[in-house]
Amino acid sequence: SEKLLLYDTVQSELEEKIRRLEEDRHSIDITSEVWKYNSKCEIPTTKLALTFQRPYIVYMLQDLDILEDWTTIRKAMATLGPHRVKTEPPVKLEKHLHSARSEEGRLYYDGEWYIRGQTICIDKKDECPTSAIITTINHDEVWFKRPDGSKSKLYISQLQKGKYSIKHS
Question: Whole-model pTM?
Answer without folding.
Answer: 0.44
